[in-house]
Write a structure and sequence with these properties.
This protein is an alpha/beta fold. It is built from eight helices and ten strands. It binds adenosine-5'-diphosphate and magnesium ion.
Length: 231
C-alpha cells in the first residue's frame, strides 16, 4: 500500500544542506501497524510528512495506493491528505477558538452538500465513542491532555481514512495517559482495519506494533522483517 523507494530528503537552510533522509526504502502493507523509532533528529517526522503528501522527496519515490505522490496534481493531493490520511500530532494541533465538536468537523469542510447534513451526527457519534460525549461544547483549553489527544484522534478518523499517521502521539502525555492513547489507537486499527504508523522514541510503545522500523541519521537501521500478526 505504501512504497518508499530509495528516498532522500535534503533541506536547504541558508547555504547549508541537511540530509534528513538518505536512501530509505520501505514497504508497508495495507492493514499493518508499524512503529518508527529513532533518536530525535533522525528523520522520523520527515518520513511521515512525505507519506502524508505534506512534502516531496528530493530523490526517490513515495507511492501510496499506486499513486506517486510527487506526480499527483495538487487538487488530488489535497483530497488524498483529507480523505486517505488521518494525521495525529504530538502537540494535538487543536484550534483553540473552536469547540471540541467543531474541531472534529474541520476536516469535513470539503464534503459534498448531501454529506454536510450528516456531519453533526457523525462527529458527535465519534466523540461519544471516544468517551467525550459530555465535552462537545468545551474548548480545548478546558480539557486534559489525554482528552485533547482523543479529540485529535476523532478528527483524524472523521473522514474514515485508510491510513493513520501519528507523530509521537504520546510525547506530551504522562505514561498512563500515553498508554491509554496507544491502546485506543490499537483498538481503532483493529476495528477499522486501518494502516497505522506511529512514530515514537518510546520502545515500550513500539512493542505494541506488529513491526518496528528503526531510523538513525536518516537511514534505516533494521531491515524489513516479516510482519508478525499478533493482534
Ligand atoms: N523544515 C525543515 N527545514 C530544515 N531542516 C529541517 C526541517 N525539518 C527537519 N529538518 C532537519 O532534518 C533532520 C530530521 O528532522 P525530523 O524529521 O524532524 O527528525 P525527527 O522527527 O526524527 O526528530 C533534523 O536535522 C532537522 O533539524
Ligand atoms: Mg519528529
Amino acid at each position: 500500500m505504501i512504497e518508499i523507494k530509495d528516498v532522500s530528503k535534503i533541506y536547504h537552510v541558508g547555504n547549508e544542506e541537511i540530509e534528513a533522509l538518505s536512501g530509505v526504502s520501505l514497504s508497508i502493507k495495507e492493514g499493518e501497524f508499524v512503529a518508527i523509532v529513532g533518536p530525535s533528529g533522525s528523520g522520523k517526522s520527515t518520513l511521515l510528512h512525505l507519506i502524508a503528501g505534506l512534502d516531496k522527496p528530493s530523490y526517490g519515490e513515495v507511492v501510496v495506493q499506486k499513486k506517486n505522490l510527487a506526480l499527483t496534481p495538487d487538487s488530488v493531493l489535497s483530497k488524498y491528505r483529507n480523505r486517505t490520511i488521518g494525521f495525529i500530532f504530538q502537540e494535538f494541533h487543536l484550534l483553540q477558538h473552536l469547540s471540541i465538536l467543531e474541531n472534529v468537523k474541520v476536516p469535513l469542510m470539503f464534503a459534498s452538500h448531501e454529506e454536510k447534513a450528516s456531519h453533526q451526527k457523525k462527529a458527535t457519534e465519534l466523540l461519544e465513542d471516544l468517551h467525550l460525549g459530555d465535552r462537545l461544547n468545551h474548548r480545548p483549553n478546558e480539557i486534559s491532555g489525554g482528552q485533547k489527544q482523543r479529540v485529535a484522534i476523532a478528527r483524524a478518523l472523521i473522514n474514515a481514512p485508510k491510513i493513520i499517521l501519528a507523530d509521537e502521539p504520546t510525547g506530551n502525555l504522562d505514561s498512563v495517559t500515553g498508554k491509554a492513547i496507544i491502546d485506543l489507537l490499537k483498538k481503532v486499527h483493529k476495528q477499522k482495519k486501518l494502516t497505522l504508523i506511529i512514530v515514537t522514541h518510546d520502545k515500550e510503545i513500539a512493542k505494541a506494533a506488529q513491526r518496528v522500523i528503526e531510523i538513525k541519521d536518516g537511514k534505516l537501521v533494521t531491515k524489513n522483517r516479516p510482519t508478525r500478526f499478533t493482534n
